Amino acid sequence: MATLVAQQKAAAFFLAISGKNIDTAALDYYSQKIETSALSLEQVAQKFITGTSSLNGLTASQIVTKVYTAVNGSAPSSSVLADLLAGNPTTASVVAKVINDVLSYSGFDSTLLTAQSNFEAQVEKTLFPVATAASSAGAADVQGVFHVVGLTQTQDGITYWGTVLAQGSKTLAAVAQTFVNNSPLKTLSDSDFINAIFQNSYERAPTSAESSSYLALLSGGSTRGDVVAQVIAALKGTVAAGDTTAQQHFQAATHVWQPGELPALNYQEQVAAAFLAIPGRGVDARGLDTWSKELFAGKTYAQVITTLINSAESQKKGAQLTGDDFVQHIFTLVHGTAATAAQLASYGALGSKTAITQAIINDLRSSVATDSATVTQQHGFEYDIGTSLLYKTAASLTATA
């Protein structure tokens, strides 16, 4: 999977040249080519120009003007256009320069910064899509099902099942039953099922009265989907004082996001740090979208770290190691240097891979040490976090435990 840095370029080039959002398959393909330098930006631009029928028959001047306008928000002046085309460069090279100059601009010119911000906002809508218009009416309830059943939200699932609900093709209970049938909850006893969905939704075990009430529903012919739908309805209403935090997490989990919208930067930074520390790469758009929203909805950092450690990618890239080898792997990725024997012993004593990883990340990010080695390592890791999140200039990053 290519990183967000390469994905932004692929999406930006396609949008600026074709005027359309890039699809998932093309995004994966071209961002990987960009990241591995299998294709230069000029070559990518040429492929997109060739594949855009609306550009057929246009002159170099017309194509450059069209792309420049799409990226900058206004057409180039005659002198700017002349400068761009001076020396008879290839059209693709000029187009690549126009797009990349805006994406990579790090100066202080307000006009250029505004153009950059506006263009990047358009690109982000491609990278972080949300429920379609057809599915938006049912999106929140589908997200509620994901939350109560205990599954990680996927945009494809929200869009598909949101559309089903919005069109009235199935009831919420019927959709919830489909989710249950395709989750680990399917094999649980009725009692264990109720315990599980209460842990997912209320973040506690059910009381005896609650358990008895839902067991009675199930024994009376109600489906597990019916129970999930009732729990969702209950969390939308008034809850006991002790359940307000769980309700807030439910509300966060069912927030319907706007195109390009992501949770606050502290959530994004936690995800970016975990990707740098575990698979050892910059975060990709899908990973950032999924896990920042899961953190926003109340999932703990430890849960996200555990999922990443157990992922197929990470298990091929060092997370499969054990003991000191695992500690050394994570420590080196985070600090950029090997751990000492004392550090290996200290972190190894924590036992679980999740605890070790979280401690290494948070210890460095929250460090107040003033020795040059620690400060250099901390600044280096924060820089990598910012770079992977497309920060243009030095930013104030927030370490979160």
From TrEMBL:
Organism: Serratia marcescens
Protein name: DUF4214 domain-containing protein
Top-level taxon: Bacteria
